[in-house]
Amino acid sequence: MISVRDLSVTIQGRPVLADVDLDLTPGRITGLVGESGSGKSMTALAIIGLLPEGAVARGRVDLDGQNLLDLPERALNDLRGRRIGMIFQEPMTALNPLMNIGDQVAEVLVQHHGMDRAAALAVARARLDRVGLPAPRFPLSLFPHELSGGQRQRVAIAMAIADAPDLLIADEPTTALDVTTQAQILDLLRELVGTEGMALLLITHDLAVIAGVADRVAVMQSGRVVEQGATEPLFRTQAHPYTRALFAAARHQPERVSVPADDTPILQVEGAVREYLLPRPSMFAPYPVLRAVDGVSLTVADGESVGLVGESGCGKSTLTRAVLGLEPLQAGRILLDGEPVTAAMSRYLRAKVQVVFQDPYGSFDPRWRVDRLVAEPFHLTGRPRDWRDRVAAALDEVGIPPDAMSRHIHQFSGGQRQRIAIARALIIRPRLVILDEAVSALDVQVRAQVLDLLARLRASHGLAWLFISHDLSVVRAITDRVLVMEKGRIVEEGATEAILTAPRHPYTQRLVAATPQIPADWVPLSRPGPLQDAAPPLSR
Amino acid sequence: MRRLALTLGVILTGIAVAAALLSWFWTPYGVTGVNIAGKLQPPGPQHWLGTDHFGRDLISMVMVGARTSIAVALVAVGIGVAAGVPLGLVAAAGRGGWVDDVIMRGNDLIFAFPSLVIAILITAALGPSAVNAILAIGIFNIPVFARVTRAAALPLWTLDYVRAAQVAGKGRARISVEHILPNVASLLIVQGTIQFSLGILAEAGLSYVGLGAQPPTPSWGRMLAEAQTMVTIAPHVAIVPGLAIVLTVLGLNLMGDALRDALDPRLRARVT
């Protein structure tokens, strides 16, 4: 049992954690929720003794009556991996690309017990079997790049549990994964905790994930635990106003709007096919062909909000690029407001569509200042004389203060960047916006705010959007119609509510079943606070 | 630590550049006059670094030599940047196409020849002179910059901000200039200082074998060559130009490293 008492952390004098108390009981899952910057990850790093430079921790982190905060680095090194294991969010970077998976898992055992390599590899084999990577299909000699994201996360878990630690810390372990993979990883973690008698500290911003697996939950806000207790009663009562605000934001649905449509739909995709040639297996063999988009047809009417759902690798992103004219098609055609989309389409036509990309870190030139970044689409329409005012107004719409204009993008958090990306997409008032996982990285409260903005623009400008996501709860909240894509094909389409309530295609059924949900009967006894806690009112 | 490196680099490079500039107007003694009576003097109050086998003042020689070395290296790097960077940008913009292939195979062709040997061949064919040394060194800088530019530009072309620029209707040339070039500039500056110091070494090498700047223009390489027969009786005559080469190259490398950090907005905060 690990208990945290009065844990406070300051970084260069600035407090980041204050008086955090947590009890991590063997065989139990403790969830830690809160928005980004609330101190969730910092708590984990303090427990495992990996605080960033310049950080000072006070208080107690007791393991077997020993305060870990007092231990010297050497002793902590011995504890890490042996008594406390950790899993990170990004399975791509958590593994060493140059080591095979057997050696990576065995490393912990060699390190802590001086086990010889053969014995350590035998244990590694058993551990990999344990996390669902059985022997014949997944030999120890595989390298990380030969595995999918979910399989990599399994290897990371095998590494973390190789030495049967007392405490496993999982920091957003499923945020980077598809819903079905997420469900499998959560099942695995829950089962491991039960059978191995570990304590698990599960850090996430997703309340539904917590509701599904955590026995206890602690809610964090600006460095403090504002509320903690057994999950179900806590979720039912929502005693603290911050908890209520989180829930309200997570369940927030923007106002429904309907927009009169004209004769030409804004987007028509007819039988689109996009193929790639893969490297040939041998010198004279034919090139294998990958059909990323396989005969897709879809229509988005003016002012309509359409969702496109599917797991990574299903062809969503390729289709997005094709609609933007960045990828040539092998067959079929794409019409934007009745005119064909090509790489050489006119500026006038191109200005009708804009995009918000998934990765808020790669979406901006790090050398440009925000005003220039947001103004870039003016290239299509000609830069108006009052462009700086327009940029300020666009930033204001997404809740970014105007003094941001003269700053570089690296000074902003992921959520702020995503809002700046939305400001950039909307500044020339396109008719269609493609949102590629655009709100997945946002905290629930910011997400609610952005969704309201989109709904408002839909009403005021007749904006249509194609919302690409694997997060069914957001798709449900903001789209009228949904398309489900699997392996390059649209397998099901229809009204969002109907499809997500009663999916017909087995793939959709799998997706819906895998999506974590807060049980419908966990309604708070007292009504949740007014929505204004979380998001500004809609009227404007 | 980083500040120390920056300061040291700037000081060393600054001394070399200042000496070269100053030598246009003033040197302690003339470098063309011969004073056999005062030959091979050790460092002393009259000649701080001593004199060579013709009795010429070594400080003055090193100052004028700096001019030759820096001018040759600077123009050679200029040729490499002026031709290589656009080639690299074009190759990256047309990645996978025939333009890319032509440019990169042309690069491979130049790379396939040992550079100093070809430089010797060029200067031997065109006649030994500082201008021909510049040409010979400069040509071999072109593929270096083309490759570095292309290699650094390729991953940028897959980034979302380049896609965003395409969605904003910008063409490949414009994106290359507005987005790609500024983001590879820091690498090019580092590569530029490395090539600059290599240029100084190459110039010294060419003059050492008599194919660089011709007498009476002093040059560090030839000073070394002329001093080597007397290294046992007057070691300072070899040590002085040798140290000049080492310290200038060291200064350039330190400065290049620090400049890269200073030019990167992500790292800028940490430099100060």
Describe the structure in your own words:
The complex is a heterodimer of chains A (540) and B (272). Chain A folds into 4 domains: 1-83 and 167-237, Rossmann fold (3-Layer(aba) Sandwich); 94-164; 259-352 and 431-517, Rossmann fold, CATH 3.40.50.300; 366-429. Chain A is built from 20 helices and 20 strands. Chain A has 540 residues and is of the alpha/beta class. Chain A is globular. Chain A has helices at residues 40-48, 73-79, 91-94, 101-113, 117-130, 149-161, 179-196, 207-213, 231-237, 241-250, 316-323, 347-350, 370-375, 378-381, 387-397, 414-426, 444-461, 472-478, 496-501, 506-514; strands at residues 2-11, 14-24, 29-33, 55-63, 66-67, 84-87, 167-171, 199-203, 216-221, 224-230, 267-277, 289-300, 305-309, 331-336, 339-340, 353-356, 432-436, 464-469, 481-486, 489-495. Chain B has 272 residues and is mainly α. Chain B has a single domain, classed as MetI-like fold (Orthogonal Bundle). In chain B, helix 4 runs antiparallel to helix 5 (130-157) and helix 7 runs antiparallel to helix 9. Chain B is elongated. Chain B starts with a helix and ends with a helix. Classes of the chains: A alpha/beta (540), B mainly alpha (272). The interface between A and B is medium-sized, with 26 and 16 residues. Chain B: Residues 66-256 form the ABC transmembrane type-1 domain. Chain B: It is found in: Cell membrane.
Radius of gyration of chain A: 25 Å
Determine the mean pLDDT of chain B: 84
Q: Main sheet of chain A: which strands, in order across?
A: 6-7-8-3-9-10
The portion of residues assigned to helices of chain A is 25-40%
The CA-CA distance between the termini of chain A, in Å, is 53 Å
Q: What is the domain tally of chain A?
A: 4
CATH class designation of chain B: Mainly Alpha
Membrane topology (chain B): Multi-pass membrane protein
Pfam family, one (chain B): BPD_transp_1
GO biological process, one term (chain B): transmembrane transport
Family (chain B): Belongs to the binding-protein-dependent transport system permease family.
